[in-house]
Design brief:
single chain, 2-enoyl-CoA Hydratase, Chain A, domain 1, 2 domains, 6-stranded mixed β-sheet, 13 helices, about 15% strand, globular, Enoyl-CoA hydratase-related protein, ClpP/crotonase-like_dom_sf, Enoyl-CoA_hydra/iso
Length: about 270
């Protein structure tokens, strides 16, 4: 995909199986306007067809991950147009969750409102120590977060902490985000890309069918009871037995164990 066709995005292949998708409206802190939502949806649809993609990293250009919706644009929209704009963002979020490859949110700065909700839809969140998170809609727009934050956040941090974030509308530091549990790692800003790529490369080195199925199971079983979750696990796992990839992996296991001793070890941490 040629980057010249985008005015609000940049897609780069850093490794053969790892892509970095950057939201590019840095002068407006990557606020999501209608154009960005359309382009993001089209780009994610394209990535759904990229069978070699094993990890997608999503980030923002400049000092912010994203400021949420472009409120200057929203201010002149009718209620119906506002709902259509929100639907476009929701479509992007659904595409992130349904992508075969895991998606890592590389949160380089403030992630506010809808941009934070996009990060919540990703599989892993790695944050710079400069990152800030907020769902301020109850204070700023006279409503509440409408792109899934109040649904996804309690599943990560529990109802009480989700209530604290959503109902106060206040900002939370990267350290607080790690403590709460909706950020998996906080790293020094200057090492953000390197640390994120360490995780991405570890994922990309694994069996892509196993990774994709595990992502699907973790996501879908979150709302299931134990028996239903285990039934889904078996439905996803059983077809993998006896495949050429599985047979070869079992045969190669002793040498793979030896090689794994030399892989970089990522220590999740909150103190940069």
């Amino acid at each position: 995909m040629n980057n010249s066709q985008w005015s609000t995005l940049r897609l780069a292949k850093l490794d053969p199986q790892i892509c970095v998708l950057t939201m590019c409206r840095p002068d407006l802190r990557n606020a999501i306007n209608a154009e960005m939502a359309r382009e993001l949806e089209a780009c994610l649809l394209h990535l759904h067809d990229e069978r070699d993609l094993r990890v997608l990293v999503l980030t923002g250009e400049g000092s912010a991950f994203g400021a949420g919706a472009d409120l200057k644009e929203r201010a002149v929209l009718t209620p119906a147009q506002t709902q259509n704009a929100r639907a476009a963002v929701l479509a992007c979020i659904e595409l992130i969750e349904s992508l075969r490859a895991p998606v890592i949110a590389m949160v380089n700065g403030p992630a506010i409102a809808g941009s934070f909700e996009i990060a919540l839809a990703c599989d892993i969140r790695v944050a710079s120590d400069r990152a800030v998170f907020a769902l301020p809609e109850v204070r700023n727009v006279g409503a509440f977060p409408g792109a899934g934050g109040p649904v996804r956040l309690p599943r990560l941090v529990g109802r009480g902490r989700a209530n604290l974030m959503v109902l106060t509308g206040r900002s939370f530091s990267a350290q607080e985000a790690f403590t709460f549990g909706f950020v998996e790692a906080v790293v020094p800003h200057q090492r953000l890309l390197d640390e994120t790529l360490t995780i991405a490369r570890q994922i990309a080195s694994n069996n892509p069918e196993g990774v994709s199925a595990a992502k699907q199971l973790i996501l879908q079983s979150n709302h299931l009871d134990l028996a239903s979750g285990m039934a889904l696990s078996r439905a996803l796992r059983d077809p993998m037995d006896g495949t050429p990839a599985a047979v070869e992996a079992v045969r190669a296991w002793p040498s793979a164990q030896r090689a794994s001793k030399h892989l970089p070890i990522y220590n999740f941490r909150s103190n940069p």
